[in-house]
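stage 2 :: seqdesign
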C-alpha cells in the first residue's frame, strides 16, 4: 500500500509530534517529525523521499539546493502567513505547490516577549532575584552597594517600526507613563498621531531614547539600517531590544558597541538560528537573549497544528 511520505522540519519544542492528529489519515501516510535543525547531508537524507514537507516558520531555507535534494517533493506547507526564506521562483519552477497553515495571534505574543525583555533588562532582573545563585536578602558577598532599580515612568521609548506589533508595544509603554516616539521609512506625523505617538527622525530617536524596540520589516532598505554610525548615537547605557529580524542591525558594529559596554542589548532573533555555541554574544554580560520565542505561544502552536491537519487533508483528498 502506497503511503504519502510527509516530513516536518524544526519542531524545536517537540510540540507537533503529539499535537498533529494523524489518526484521521489511517495508514495512508508516513509522518516523520525532526526536532533538531538539520544541515547538509542530514537534511538532504531527511527530505530525499518526502512528497510533502512542513516548514515551521523560517527555521530552514528552501532554495535550489533544497529542491535538488527532494526529487519527490510535490507540496510544501508553511506555517504562518508568509515565509521569507522560501525561494518562490525556484519552488514554482519545480512545479511544487505551496499552502499556508495560519497560527494564532503571534503579534500579541511578540509584544509580550518584547516587554519581557525590556523589563528584565531595565530592572536588571538578574540582580534582583533571590535564589540559589544569590541566597542573601539584598546583601552581596562582595559588600558592594545593592542595585537600586529605576522606573520606566518619564523615560522615553523609541519604536522603530510602528506596525501592528509596534502599536501594541506603544500602548503598554503609555500605560507605564513613558514618552513614546517612533520612526519608520514611511512614517508620517499624522499616522503616528493616530496612535498617540510622536513621529521623529531616526537620528533623534536613537540619540534621545532610553529604550529602543525594533519592529521593522526586513528589506533591502532596512537591512543593517542600524550601522556603526547610527549605533554611535545611542545614549550610554541605552537598552536596544530586537524582536524583529537580526539583519536590521549590523552585527559587527553591534558587537563593537557591546564590547565597549556602551549599551545593553536584548534580542530574540539572530542571523543564524540556532545560535552557535561559540557566538560572542554568550561571553557578554550586557546581552540578554531568548531563543526566538516571539511568535511561540500555546494558542499560536495549537492553531498551527489544527491548520496543518486541514492542509494535509486538502492535499490528500
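stage 2 :: out
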Amino acid at each position: 500500500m502506497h503511503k504519502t511520505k510527509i516530513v516536518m522540519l524544526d519542531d524545536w519544542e517537540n510540540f507537533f509530534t503529539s499535537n498533529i492528529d494523524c489518526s484521521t489519515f489511517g495508514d495512508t501516510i508516513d509522518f516523520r517529525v525532526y526536532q533538531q535543525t538539520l544541515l547538509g547531508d542530514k537534511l538532504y537524507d531527511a527530505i530525499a523521499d518526502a512528497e510533502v514537507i512542513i516548514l515551521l516558520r523560517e527555521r530552514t531555507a528552501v532554495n535550489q539546493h533544497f529542491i535538488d535534494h527532494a526529487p519527490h517533493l510535490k507540496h510544501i506547507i508553511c506555517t504562518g502567513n508568509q515565509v521569507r526564506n522560501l525561494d518562490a521562483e525556484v519552488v514554482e519552477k519545480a512545479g511544487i505547490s505551496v499552502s499556508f497553515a495560519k497560527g494564532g495571534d503571534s503579534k500579541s505574543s511578540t509584544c509580550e516577549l518584547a516587554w519581557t525583555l525590556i523589563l528584565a533588562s531595565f530592572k536588571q532582573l538578574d540582580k534582583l532575584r533571590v535564589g540559589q545563585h544569590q541566597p542573601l536578602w539584598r546583601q552581596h558577598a562582595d559588600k558592594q552597594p545593592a542595585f537600586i532599580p529605576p522606573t520606566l515612568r518619564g523615560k522615553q521609548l523609541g519604536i522603530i517600526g510602528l506596525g501592528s506589533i509596534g502599536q501594541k508595544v506603544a500602548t503598554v509603554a503609555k500605560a507605564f507613563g513613558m514618552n513614546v516616539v517612533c520612526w519608520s521609512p514611511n512614517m508620517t506625523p499624522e499616522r503616528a498621531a493616530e496612535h498617540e505617538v510622536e513621529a521623529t527622525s531616526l537620528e533623534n530617536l536613537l540619540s534621545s531614547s532610553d529604550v529602543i524596540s525594533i519592529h521593522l520589516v526586513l528589506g533591502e532598505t532596512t537591512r543593517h539600517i542600524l550601522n556603526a554610525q547610527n549605533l554611535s548615537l545611542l545614549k550610554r547605557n541605552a537598552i536596544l531590544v530586537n524582536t524583529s529580524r537580526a539583519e536590521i542591525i549590523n552585527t559587527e558594529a553591534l558587537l563593537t558597541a557591546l564590547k565597549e559596554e556602551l549599551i545593553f542589548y536584548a534580542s530574540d532573533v539572530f542571523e543564524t538560528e540556532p545560535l552557535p555555541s561559540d557566538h560572542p554574544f554568550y561571553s557578554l554580560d550586557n546581552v540578554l537573549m531568548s531563543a526566538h520565542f516571539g511568535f511561540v505561544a500555546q494558542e499560536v502552536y495549537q492553531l498551527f497544528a489544527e491548520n496543518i491537519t486541514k492542509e494535509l487533508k486538502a492535499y490528500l483528498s
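stage 3 :: structure notes
- Residues 222 and 285 are 28 Å apart (CA to CA).
- The chain has a mean pLDDT of 93.
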